[in-house]
Specification:
single chain; alpha/beta; Heat Shock Protein 90; 3 domains; 5-stranded mixed sheet
Length: 305
C-alpha cells in the first residue's frame, strides 16, 4: 500500500507507516518515482517471500538432522548392547540349561517326599523355576540384539497380530483394564509376524504397568489401539491413561537398561527391544506423554515391500 498525500510533516509520515502503509509519496509527485517505488516494493516482497520459504526449508532440514542424529545415537547404543549381549548370552546359557534340567529332576522327586513336606517343597521349586524363567526372558530379549535378522517379512494382518498379543496378556488385563481397538479388518503390514507380536506385547504390558501405578477417580483404566494408513505407511497409536512419563525421562525411554521401576521389577529392555525391532522392520517408534494423564506410542510400519 502506497499512500499519496499532500501532508508531508513527520507526524503524518509516522502515522501512515504505523497504520500499515508500505510507503508514501507527497504531492506533487513524479510518475517515474512512483514506478521506482512500486518496483522496489514488489522486489522487497518477493525477497521476503523467498526468505520465508528458505527459512521454512532450513527449519525442516534442521528437524530432520536432529531426528537423524537421535536415531544414530540410539542405533549406536543398540549396537554396543548387541556386542555386549553376545558374550553375556554365551556365559549365561550353559549354567541356565543345567539349572533347567535340575529343576525337571527336582519336580520328579516330589512324590518321594513325605506328604507333610510336599507343599513346602513344591513352593520352593516354583520360586526357583520363576527365577530361572525371568533369566530366560532376559536372555531372550538380549538375543534380539545379537540376531536381528532372524525370520522373514510377510504381508500379515495387523488386527490378527494385535488380537494374538492381547490373548497373551488376557489374564494380566482381565477385569482390570478396558482395551478398545480401532483397526480396519483388512489392514496389512509387511513385517516379521513374531517380532511384531513381541513389540505389541511389550507395549501393552508397559501400558498395563503404567495404569497399575495410577489411582483412578471417575476415569476408568483404558488402553486404545488405533491405526491409519498413509502413503505406504501404517501408523499405529497405542495410548493409555496411566501414570504417564516424566518429561526428563522421555528422551531416555528407549535406552537399553533404562527403567523407572523398582529393583527386581524389570531390566529396562522391553522398550529398547521395541525400538530395535521397529527399525529393523523398516519402521519407527516414538512416544509422547503427559505426566499423570497419558502415554501414547506411535508405531510406524511399512504396508508393502
Amino acid at each position: 500500500m502506497i499512500l499519496l498525500t499532500a501532508r508531508a510533516d513527520d507526524e503524518t509520515k509516522m502515522s501512515a507507516l504505523g497504520a500499515g502503509a508500505s510507503d508514501f509519496l507527497t504531492k506533487p509527485f513524479s510518475t517515474t518515482e512512483l514506478h521506482v517505488r512500486v518496483k522496489n516494493l514488489v522486489e522487497s516482497h518477493r525477497f521476503q517471500s523467498d526468505l520465508a520459504r528458505q527459512k521454512s526449508a532450513l527449519e525442516s532440514t534442521l528437524e530432520q538432522l536432529k531426528e537423524t542424529e537421535g536415531q544414530l545415537v540410539q542405533n549406536e547404543k543398540m549396537a554396543s548392547l548387541g556386542r555386549l549381549s553376545a558374550g553375556i548370552i554365551h556365559e549365561i546359557n550353559n549354567p541356565l540349561n543345567y539349572a533347567t534340567s535340575a529343576l525337571h529332576l527336582l519336580k520328579m522327586r516330589k512324590d518321594r517326599l513325605p506328604e507333610s513336606e510336599r507343599e513346602k517343597y513344591v513352593e520352593i521349586v516354583s520360586d526357583i523355576e520363576e527365577g530361572v524363567d525371568r533369566v530366560q526372558r532376559i536372555v531372550s530379549d538380549l538375543r534380539t540384539f545379537t540376531h536381528p535378522h532372524a525370520g522373514g517379512k510377510d504381508l500379515v494382518s495387523l488386527p490378527e497380530i494385535i488380537g494374538t498379543s492381547l490373548k497373551f496378556l488376557s489374564q494380566e488385563l482381565k477385569d482390570r483394564v478396558k482395551v478398545e481397538t480401532r483397526v480396519p479388518e483388512d489392514q496389512r503390514v509387511m513385517v516379521d509376524r513374531n517380532k511384531l507380536i513381541q513389540v505389541f506385547v511389550n507395549l501393552i504390558q508397559n501400558s498395563s504397568d503404567a495404569i497399575r501405578e495410577k489411582k483412578f477417580g471417575d476415569e476408568k483404566p483404558l488402553i486404545t489401539i488405533a491405526s491409519e494408513a498413509d502413503n505406504g505407511v501404517v501408523r499405529v497409536r497405542l495410548r493409555d491413561n496411566g501414570e504417564g512419563i516424566a518429561p526428563e525421562n522421555l528422551g531416555k525411554i528407549f535406552d537399553p537398561f533404562f527403567t523407572t521401576k523398582d529393583v527386581g521389577q524389570g531390566m529396562g529392555l522391553g522398550l529398547s527391544v521395541c525400538y530395535k525391532i521397529a527399525r529393523e522392520q523398516g519402521g519407527n517408534i516414538s512416544v509422547k506423554s503427559e505426566k499423570g494423564k497419558y502415554t501414547e506410542f506411535v508405531l510406524e510400519l511399512p504396508s508393502k515391500a
